[in-house]
Amino acid sequence: MALTQYKYMDIIHRCFRCGYCKFPLDWEDVDNCPSYARHRLESYSNGGRLWLIRAWITGEIPWSEHLADIVYSCVACKNCEEKCPLSFSDDIINMVTAARNLMVDQGLVPPAAKKYLENVQLHGNPWGLGAKKRDQWMADLSLEPYRDQEFLYFVGSEGAYDSRAQSAARALAGVLQKAGVSFGVLGNTETDDGNEAELLGEDGLVEVLAEKNIARFAEHGVKKIITLSPHAYNALKNIYPRHGGEFAVYHYTQVLADLVRAGKLAAPKLAPVKITYHDPCFLGRWNNEYKAPRKVLQSIGGVQLLEMGRNRKSAFCCGGGSGNYYMDLLGGSADSPARIRVRQASATGADVLAVACPNCLSMLEDAVKVEGLESKLMVKDISEIMYGTE
Amino acid sequence: MDSVYAALVEIVGQDYVSTRTEELFTYSKDLGTSEPQWPDYVAAPATAEEVSRIVQMANEKNVAVVPLGGGLSLAGLALPLKGGIELDLKRMNQILELNEKGRYVVVEAGTSHGKLTAHLHKHAPHLMHSEPGAPPAATIGGNLAIHGQGDLGHPYGFNSDMVSGMEVVLPTGEVCRFGSCALGNSWYTLHPLPDVSMFMGWSGSTGIITKVSLRLFPCKKIQEQDAFVVEDEELVPDILYELTHVGMAEDMMVVSQEIPPPFNRLHYILINISGDSRKELEFKRQLMFDDRLSKYIQDGTGGIGAGGQEVPRPVVSKTSDWRKGGGFEYVGAIMPVTTYPECYKSGVEISGRHGIPYTTLGRVLGSGHSMMFSWTFAFNRADEETVRHARQALHETDEKVLELGGTLWKPAVFGQKLLMDRMDDGTLQMMQKVKHMLDPNGIMNPGNWEVA
Amino acid sequence: MFELQFDESKCHACVTRDCLTRCQYMDLDAQAAGIEMEKIISGQDSRVLHECRTCYACEEYCPTGNHPFYLIVKRQEELGITPLPDPIIRQGIQVGVPFRGDPEITEINGPVLNMGVFSPLARLAQGKLFEDLTRISTDSRKMHHFFCQLMYLHFARTSVINQRLPGVIETISAYKPTEVVHFHDECYGTYTSYAPAFGIEVPFRSIHLFEHLYNRLTELREEIRPVNYKVAYQRPCSSRLSPDAHAYVDKIFDLIGAEHVSRRYVDENALCCGSTIVSQKQEGSRRFCLELQEENIEDMKQAGAELCIFNCPACMQTMGKQVAENGIMPIWMSDLCRMAIGETPA
Ligand SMILES: Cc1cc2nc3c(=O)[nH]c(=O)nc-3n(C[C@H](O)[C@H](O)[C@H](O)COP(=O)(O)OP(=O)(O)OC[C@H]3O[C@@H](n4cnc5c(N)ncnc54)[C@H](O)[C@@H]3O)c2cc1C
Ligand code: SF4
Ligand code: SF4
Ligand code: SF4
Ligand code: SF4
Description:
The structure holds three protein chains of three kinds.
Chain A: H1 34-39, H2 46-58, H3 65-72, H4 79-83, H5 92-105, H6 111-123, E1 151-154, H7 156-161, H8 163-178, E2 183-184, H9 195-199, H10 203-220, E3 224-227, H11 230-239, E4 248-251, H12 252-261, E5 269-277, H13 291-299, E6 301-306, H14 324-327, H15 337-347, E7 352-355, H16 358-370, E8 378-381, H17 382-387
Parallel strand pairs in A: 1-2, 1-3, 3-4, 5-6, 5-7, 7-8
Chain B: H1 3-12, E1 17-18, H2 21-27, E2 41-43, H3 48-61, E3 65-68, E4 85-88, E5 95-99, E6 104-108, H4 113-123, E7 127-128, H5 140-145, H6 153-156, E8 163-169, E9 175-178, E10 208-215, E11 217-218, E12 222-230, H7 236-246, E13 251-257, E14 267-275, H8 278-292, H9 294-298, E15 302-310, E16 326-335, H10 340-353, E17 359-365, E18 370-380, H11 384-403, E19 407-409, H12 413-422, H13 425-438
Parallel strand pairs in B: 2-4, 3-4
Antiparallel strand pairs in B: 1-2, 5-6, 6-10, 7-11, 8-9, 8-10, 12-14, 12-15, 13-14, 13-17, 16-18, 16-19, 17-18
Helix pairs in contact in B: 1-3, 10-11, 11-12
Chain C: H1 8-13, H2 18-21, H3 30-41, H4 47-51, H5 57-61, H6 68-79, H7 86-95, E1 111-114, E2 134-136, H8 158-173, E3 179-182, H9 185-197, E4 206-208, H10 209-219, E5 230-234, H11 243-256, E6 259-260, H12 285-302, E7 307-310, H13 313-325, E8 329-332, H14 333-340
Parallel strand pairs in C: 1-2, 1-3, 3-4, 5-6, 5-7, 7-8
Helix pairs in contact in C: 10-11
Bound molecules: flavin-adenine dinucleotide and iron/sulfur cluster (4 copies).
């Protein structure tokens, strides 16, 4: 694909670089774009990035590794789309992704992104771990393979492979069992959901992954899917229909909220505990689900829910989106998004930082350690809290 | 390694310095029609001390230093005309003190207006500062460096009239304070010491403002906007005279623009009023509409176009998108209110000639002591021809302003020259002396306000 | 151009002169009303042309279906006696100018919901009550192509309506609707009252939103849970053009278990929201408008209303906030109906 085929040439010049997109909804500060918050140079702001992309496309500046880093350091958190007042705002991330499409096409992506995509392509997960190991997270759990149960539990790559996220994956399985939900899993025949591959600009790979998963679902006649990860939720709900996938998709917090409401799931009772909740971008801004996770948390005895100033549409991203939980282009600083986020969480006085995403879980837990907040703040997935994981 | 680069890294840290094409490109442009001007370095200091060290180093190495806030002034004022170090000040964004009873707030100069508004909203909801209509990323320091005006312009004038103290890093590196804070007192007043603060309006060419104490004013519970509409521009000065006589408004602007159609060839006098109760608002409205303006209503020449609208945060940047082109720039000038009709007509005329839908706005400053009048020209960033037209229209407007007896506000270099050409000799020499005294090596934002 | 079909002989034979004697804003007895009506008919100046608040009510009061209000507006324009200041009229006329391209039209061959000039409110028309309708005019950049123009009755400009309306009718017709449910009373009034009165042909069948809601609610009767609110209703001016449809208000309230409070300013006695009165040229209009609104809301309060039901966006915009500040919750009729079938209001 030649640069001239850039898909958004007719709108990318419309960004005025006015910077509304840096703010949260309450205008608290210019630092709600994770990539800008980390670097504080205009080149890393959304407007700067769009102008750089355009300059690359028009030949004003040449490609460089640094340019690729900038283009890949957007974590697709959608804060900018929320805030930009102009009518093209819905296409901001598309504009970035389209530039990545070109970079992928020309082999010009940052090494970490290249590795990520390669691993997913060869092994079905970002870490390049053996595809056959995908079901190890549930080795000692007696989970049924999916046959014709009501739900398929789609665990996703993080839940299957990331040691921290595995705990959430297991906890969720436990909670679902406890509530008597009829569900099954795909084990080794599941593959990566492709959400990040899409954002990283590797359309061909997304297609392969989507088709693979969809074929598997179709084989078993899957109609309803529960995902552990909001990223998988987004892929299955918003990307798969383009590839012919037709099924109802639920993020697990939605299912738990329903179960609690229907009285089918008794929430645990805890000793009084203050919890603050971090909205994952792919559940919140991408899919507008802010209520279900909060309802679940509020159903738990002893919980006092404290909100961070940046919540819901204004939530500050953990910095892990768009493959960055693996590539870590925003790491290495006190201003790394995850570290900023745990400081925000800690400032609420909460004992527990609750998340509903395996990426956020590992990003934020690492950040808590680096910030030396382990004794004050525990990071837990809602599934773990509901299951009573210590 | 380049010694300036090494020094910058040493001062602000590796992460916040760059000489890479991507950063240099990004800082070579602003939002308006200016030609790109490439810096050699970009650095983002976090403290006044870092700023001071950078400036000292720049004097030693004889490289230019150009302060940058939000970069929203549109006239190329923060572009490095002579290369050198572009200093992005937005990391200096701490709100240092909020004194409620004393009604002032001390902030670092790179704090955005949006942040300050949000902070007050949260911590002192009954206080406000005068926020410019610029995008909220505009900084306090940048705004003062160009004598900005905000939404309390009608009662209290220019934003630079609302300063209670200031800290500045001089072009030679010394850190100076002005006002009561210079005595080690709290930051409650700028006067009555001898006036040596020569930084506001200088576009950063005499020093870098690092801290500011801003006056805060009562913020009432209910804020609403009414509009009084007239078709005949000649009536506008009289109506503003009536309204400023009662002095009930907070912000008053007269808007006329070709797009969208309801604004075309009409003049919307937007009146922001506030009150702690409905009763207070109604009292103000009675004075304005029933007492002073009813004659226009009854003879059919003026009418209440809207009442009690919420006051939204202005999203003026939408102007940039009317041509689906991502750009606009305006000439702003401080004008006598009586020139409104001429200003408006020239806007329609000049815009028409350049094929740009006209957009004009006048904001009342003080009790009608002057108004900031702006002529906005939108362009399509992807179409060089439209950029050229806008640039030409801006130049023609600059000249028109002077013809009308106006004073250009935050002029680009082109306009600065026009002004200095007309300035009293004595004044001009004084400006030159000030600049030489403060900036002997000519490193601070060179190219701006340079007396030939 | 189109001519108002006004039958003078009906007025000559008219004894009660309800049009003007019942006017809430002027105090005229039958005799004085006769004299003023005569002046209006013959094209002379009349105090009515100056004092009319443009509330549309006389259209409803006239027992013979003659069109007194349309005639008043026409004469106001002819004689240059405008209720509003010139710049407000110019502004109003310019509001209706489409400037962002033409709508994309596809044939629907089924029932449609015409959002008119209220595309941004399309969210109100969702859920089961609307599921059989295809919405048209959903793009706010293009909505002025669907603007029924009737607003200009407040601006003494039947000429503008007559000039623009045929184009609007053409736009809507191009969708090939089998019937058109109008989101706004004003559109319904345009196509069922104004257009026929001026001999403007309307090739589609119009249905009032309330009739549609009533029918749908009847179909969904099983799902209705009584809302059990005491409600007041803010009747919009254009509802005066369709008194038959107004009857659905009480019928809907019956179905959904809302108690329509009995108050003074209801039905034929309803008060105008004041959205244009506030700007009128008559001395003291602004104060007058405020007092009118206060009286109206006080009346709702006295009657014990918990909710005030709106159907017209202009009424909502003008009075909604004030109603809320008086402790009565403003709510759209569509939302109230949706609540009754267990849906969450938009
Ligand atoms: C849509 C729009 C609307 C606007 N409306 C208004 C308005 O209503 N009122 C108004 O006043 N302005 C308005 N502006 C102009 C401008 O955006 C504002 O004045 C803004 O506050 C400038 O601040 P900044 O931080 O963006 O300054 P910059 O553009 O970054 O800098 C302005 C000048 O000051 C210098 N400078 C920056 N920071 C410092 C510092 N700390 N010390 C010394 N010099 C410094 C720079 O070198 C430059 O010369 C508007 C602009 C836009 C785009
Ligand atoms: S994306 Fe929108 S808000 Fe952000 S800089 Fe560009 S135009 Fe402004
Ligand atoms: S999506 Fe998030 S990280 Fe990317 S530019 Fe927007 S705000 Fe920044
Ligand atoms: S318009 Fe109707 S009510 Fe009025 S006088 Fe004529 S017939 Fe009678
Ligand atoms: S429109 Fe209303 S105010 Fe005017 S004459 Fe008819 S009833 Fe009276």
